[in-house]
């Protein structure tokens, strides 16, 4: 296999199961029914904590932190994230696939969190964590890529365990998240922006993160993972402003 094709290994991995679930829709339902109760052998807090790493606010904070060592990737962060978010919004509204608790008989889904009010397809959490993993492993060795893949898989499984997504939602979401960020890394100013533009963009992103953190603090969460979201956001925010202050001296 040539190096060019090796770089497309996420697509080669995801396309066959996506195609199979599209060809046999009942397999999508049966796979959910098999995995959902089996995953409940692990404690519910584990799945809710894992799901945090697929929340866009948390993912954007982590992407920003990762970009500090590779500021030339900041354009990809912005373009890839916006593209993935807009794509998720459009597809969820267009397909309007109902989530498992809305179509399965009562008692077959044990919800571990609140049921989102939007469509199920594709999974926004899968898109977000796949975009994060793609950004993080870009140009890295296979060992690092494997670690990020494990995180993405854990987030995807958490959405089945929580009871809010079908397997097809997650596989398609991961594919779209990878494609969005990979295209951005390849084509969105791959050499990066000028230093002043980069600094301004970082400042804007930190201000947006501060606004998100203020909103979180004003809407206290129900479960303990709320504080994980707050902690990640606060740590990235403080570190980011400290870095900007040092670089401006």
From TrEMBL:
One of its GO terms (molecular function) is sphingosine-1-phosphate phosphatase activity. The chain crosses the membrane at residues 45-67, 74-97, 117-138, 145-164, 201-220, 226-245. Keywords: Membrane, Transmembrane, Transmembrane helix. Residues 74-185 form the Phosphatidic acid phosphatase type 2/haloperoxidase domain. CDD domains: PAP2_like. InterPro entries: PAP2/HPO, PAP2/HPO_sf. The keyword Transmembrane applies. This is Phosphatidic acid phosphatase type 2/haloperoxidase domain-containing protein. It comes from Chromobacterium sphagni.
């Amino acid at each position: 296999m040539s190096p060019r094709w090796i770089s497309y290994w996420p697509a080669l991995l995801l396309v066959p199961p996506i195609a199979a679930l599209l060809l046999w829709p009942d397999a999508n339902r049966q796979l959910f029914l098999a995995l959902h109760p089996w995953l409940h052998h692990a404690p519910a807090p584990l799945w809710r904590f894992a799901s945090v790493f697929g929340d866009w606010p948390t993912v954007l904070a982590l992407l920003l932190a990762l970009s500090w060592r590779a500021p030339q990737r900041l354009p990809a962060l912005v373009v890839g994230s916006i593209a993935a978010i807009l794509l998720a919004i459009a597809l969820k509204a267009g397909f309007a696939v109902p989530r498992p608790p809305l179509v399965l008989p009562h008692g077959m889904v044990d919800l571990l969190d609140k049921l989102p009010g939007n469509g199920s397809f594709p999974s926004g959490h899968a898109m977000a964590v796949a975009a994060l993993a793609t950004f993080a492993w870009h140009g890295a060795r296979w060992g690092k890529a494997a670690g990020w893949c494990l995180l993405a898989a854990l987030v995807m499984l958490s959405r089945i365990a929580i009871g809010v997504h079908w397997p097809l939602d997650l596989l398609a979401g991961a594919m779209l998240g990878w494609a969005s960020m990979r295209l951005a890394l390849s084509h969105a100013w791959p050499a990066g922006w000028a230093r002043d533009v980069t600094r301004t963009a970082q400042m804007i992103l930190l201000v947006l993160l501060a606004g998100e953190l203020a909103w979180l603090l004003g809407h206290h969460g129900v479960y303990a993972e709320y504080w994980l979201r707050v902690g990640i956001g606060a740590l990235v925010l403080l570190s980011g402003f400290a870095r900007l202050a040092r670089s401006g001296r």
